[in-house]
Amino acid sequence: MSAAAHSVVEPSTTSKRAAATLVIVYALISMIPLFWIFATSFKTPPDSIAYPPKIVFTPSIEGYCNLFTTRTRQTPEYINSLPPATSFCDETTRKRNMVIAGPSNFLPRFVNSLIIAFGSTFCAVFLGTLAAYGFSRFRVPLADDLLFFILSTRFMPPIAVAIPIYLMYRELGLSDTALGMILLYTAVNVSLAVWLLKGFIDEIPREYEEAAMIDGYTRLQAFRKVVLPQATTGIAATAIFCLIFAWNEYAFASLLTSGTAQTAPPFIPTIIGEGGQDWPAVAAGTTVFLVPILVFTILLRKQLLRGITFGAVRK
Amino acid sequence: MADVSLRGVCKAFGDTQAVDGLTLSIKDGEFVVLLGPTGAGKTTTLRLVAGLERPDSGSIVIGGRDVTKLEPASRDVAFVFQQYSLYPHLTVAENLAFPLRSPARKWSEAEIKSRVLEVAKLVRIDHKLESRSTRLSGGEMQRVAIGRALVRKPAIYLMDEPLSSLDAKLRGDLRLELKRIQAELGSTMLYVTHDQIEAMTMADRIGILAESRLAQIGTPREIYTEPANLHVAARLGQPAINLLPADLLPEGAAPTGTKTIGARTEHLTIRKAANGPADGTVDWVEHLGDQNHLHLKVGNRRLVTLTDPDTLFDKGDRVTVRLKSPLYFDGAGNRIAE
């Protein structure tokens, strides 16, 4: 990037402080819902619905116990006849006149989310990289129209195509399968991936590949040895965008999955306890749900920060 | 190393004819420089030999083998680009080893290492082998780029203005180094430039490209003293050749049909006109340090010649100008041989 394009005046200390304050305040406001969810996940069910809301409370992992287990109500006599509780979860459950009946569906749903989100992200980025390379380097007939067509798949709101897709999937036997969801999210994300990655690959001078091809590499080998390493920034940024979409997607997931392939977003609202919504369990589910995307983003932070400036590849 | 020849090669990009019927033979061990202005088809010619472009017609033969339809990788050529020459994600050593690590070559790591070191010493970059290629200065980068071509022993080295992005001092140094290396290795080289000094000093033969065609090819001496036409004459010489209408100066020896006379410094005898008749006046003396450019006004034409640093001429002096076996060109711009 050229710094000479416009003159840069070092901002004054006052304006720097003002900017910092603004950013911090904005960040805090944005963090409040997240903090509230996080706090709720460590409350007991009565604390979670207390009015006025409790800011200070005794933390409990009951929400997490309830998230990962199913429980049945029993008589106090039956509970007293049981051997002593072996875990904290056992103990809390018994205090509420219930016993743990088995694991809940959260873990398999969470695993579904991982498989589907990462699977579709991999497919979308893989296909997107190859397509973007093709569009960037070869004279593709009607390239501009094709690119517009690829982008146009994102024009409609998902719900507009939900019913046809639902019917198609039922006919094809793809309803409620991980494969079906991976295909669907890949199809949605690949347009984003092609567009983002084309920008990044356009920025890589083709002399590098030409040099490699003269040096005895085939085009594919040159792509792998020379283009890919320089496109990692763009690939990382694209992967995060695709992953965030696939991870958070709710509309298609709730329509097309109900059992074995259900992802976490439609599952979390179904966590219902005895006598109303079990808010700590719902909050615990949401908190656990946030972890993978957080870890992934932190791992790719360096690439993301460089990549987010779209196409500003170091020359 | 091997002979390389292009036979009637044509290449067009859309409506633009980049190379038009180019025929050129390069002998084993020869250093051929293609000289021409931007857009004359120099780079396209190199890319055609390298296989980065396919000719529309004609054929390219390297070492007796018709490579016209072969991929770049199977042509056994090495290429030095004008810029973007190094892989930015690799170190100097990895850049130099890159061609040797090609799956098509089965070099052992030990062989690669010793060859890389050998070449790094040749291009004087062995002290920076572990540096990232983006951390080098312009001259170092270009030395590595040349080194990366030299690690192999291809049929021909193709160089596309490898020195043009460097400053004048560095360009001079690398020019000498490159010529030394080429002479040492006896390599066949096709070198493209728009810098006449590079062409004159390095080439065994110079090919002058103009408007997609090869205007003339010959030794630097031939090109300089016997240019085929006005265009070739204008490419070489510093300051540029003076092109004058045939009747501007008294000249009895001009062959019939002469339309334009080409006069370089060595074709002009300039004397101060004491009191007698004069042909022109000194307009300006341009001091360049080691030499001076003398700007003359003759009739309504300007002439520029070289003169000694301690010249006696001064602005406003009246001078006589005489031609001394200059170059004669006909109406079509072709030189009339005497």
TrEMBL record, chain A:
Membrane listed as a keyword: yes
Species whose genome carries this gene: Allomesorhizobium camelthorni
Subcellular location(s) of the protein: Cell membrane
Entry's family note: Belongs to the binding-protein-dependent transport system permease family.
Classification via InterPro entries: BP-dep_ABC_trans_perm, MetI-like, MetI-like_sf
Key words of the record: Cell membrane, Membrane, Transmembrane, Transmembrane helix, Transport
One GO cellular component term noted in the UniProt record for this chain: plasma membrane
Protein topology in the membrane: Multi-pass membrane protein
Gene3D superfamilies attached to this UniProt entry: MetI-like
Listed name of the protein: Carbohydrate ABC transporter permease
Stretches assigned to the ABC transmembrane type-1 domain: 110-300
KW Membrane (keyword) present: yes
Single Gene Ontology BP annotation: transmembrane transport
Residue ranges crossing the lipid bilayer per the database entry: 20-39, 114-134, 146-166, 178-197, 226-247, 279-300
Organism domain of life: Bacteria
From TrEMBL, chain B:
Compartments (UniProt record): Cell inner membrane
Pfam families registered for this protein in UniProt: ABC_tran (PF00005), TOBE_2 (PF08402)
InterPro entries: AAA+_ATPase, ABC_transporter-like_ATP-bd, ABC_transporter-like_CS, ABC_transpr_MalK-like, ABC_transpr_MalK/UgpC-like, Mo/tungstate-bd_C_term_dom, NA-bd_OB-fold, P-loop_NTPase
Entries under SMART domains matching the protein: AAA
Membrane topology: Peripheral membrane protein
Top-level lineage group: Bacteria
Keywords for the protein's UniProt record, in alphabetical order: ATP-binding, Nucleotide-binding, Transport
GO cellular component term of the entry, any: ATP-binding cassette (ABC) transporter complex, substrate-binding subunit-containing
GO biological process, one term: carbohydrate transport
Location of the ABC transporter domain: 4-236
GO function term, MF aspect, one: ABC-type transporter activity
CDD domains according to UniProt: ABC_MalK_N (cd03301)
Family affiliation: Belongs to the ABC transporter superfamily.
UniProt protein name: ABC transporter ATP-binding protein
